[in-house]
Each structure stands twice: as C-alpha cells, then as structure tokens.
Amino acid sequence: MAIRDEKKQQTRQSLLDAAIAMVATGRSFASLSLREVTRDAGVVPASFYRHFRDMDELGLALVDDTCQQLRKLIRAARTTQAPGDNMLAASTSTFLHYVNANRSAFHFLLRERYGGSAPLRESITREVRGFTIDLAADFAKFPHFSQLPRDDVEMMATLLVNTVVSALGELLELPMDHPDTQGAIAKTLTDQLRVIVLGGLAWKPGTKLPMG
C-alpha cells in the first residue's frame, strides 16, 4: 500500500511539474491541454483523472501547493525570531529563497492572478488573504500590536502583504541567484516593510498630514 501511495504521489507531482514547466515558457495556463500535460509528465491521459477532475483542478492544486508551503515557511520564520527587525528580515529572506527556488510557479501565480480563469483568480486571491490573516494573527501576539484596534492591525498586515506581492514581478525579473543582488533586494524590501510597521504603530485616525 505504501509503495502504491508513493507512486500515486509521484504521478501527481509529475503532472504538476509538467504544467509548471510548460507555463514557464510564457504560455498561459488556459492554453495547456490535458494531453500535452500528460505527455510531458510521461503518463497516459487516463491517469490524469485519478488525480484531477479537469485542468482547472490541476491549476488549483498548483496554487494551493505553492502558497501553502510558503505560508508554513513564513510562519515558522516569524515564530523562531524575536519580534522586530529580526522577524522582518527572517520573513523576507525566507520569502526570497522560496521564490528563487520556485520561480516558474510564481510566474504562473502572477500571470494567472489577473489573467487566468475565474477559479484560479479566486483561489489566488484567497491565498493572498490567507497570508494577511496569518500575519495579523501573529502581530496580535505582541504587546505593541495587541493594544491596537483589530482593524488597524489587519490594515497594516494588508499593506505588508500587498507590498511583498507588488515586488514579486520585479523580483522575478532580476538575477536573484547572485548573492549581492539578492542581499540588496532583501534589504530594500525589509526597509519598506519596516516603514509600514513603524508608520502603523504611530498612526492615529484623523491625524493630518504635515504638509502645506
């Protein structure tokens, strides 16, 4: 039974890997056919249906597998560091390393976030929201944040997650395998996140901007 389960998991992963490899060439996920994916995965088309109902379900599995693993890694990075700069730096470093190791998957996520099918767009939106919920929950454990209104903490978490997501396109275009480049990217992104956190802690509703 264990051997059969392992082989089934390998076939599933082969299908996912084949789809990711194909979209890495610049194709949209919607343009992929089931027969192409199974051919590149080295399995017969009938095997596909033992794992997925259709191509949309395979796409949803790609979103889920990529994002769920990143969420686990990011939360682990935050919980093993003291609150403050170390936590932000650890989270940013973990994110960059994971993206660098899964560049094709993140190209897929970026492309499908706005241009994919409705099920894929909705799934990616839910995953982004999941990162925000996780971050807000982690923030609430620390004294400075626990004293803030819940809406303010969620707003700060939303800004942080959106900043990281917005940087993703640029990150994927840069040679992240170069240590100096990756270090510069990590510092810039960490500084941006620090500005948001420091500003959020000092912000009060109704405060006027010191301009004019």
TrEMBL record:
Q: Which SUPFAM superfamilies match?
A: Homeodomain-like
Domain HTH tetR-type, first and last residues per copy: 9-70
Q: Keywords of this protein's UniProt record, alphabetized?
A: DNA-binding, Transcription, Transcription regulation
Highest taxon of the source?
Bacteria
Give the DNA-binding residue ranges.
Answer: 33-52
GO MF annotations for this entry?
A: DNA binding
The answer, when asked if Transcription is one of the entry's keywords, is yes
Q: What is this protein called?
A: TetR family transcriptional regulator
- Origin organism is Panacagrimonas perspica
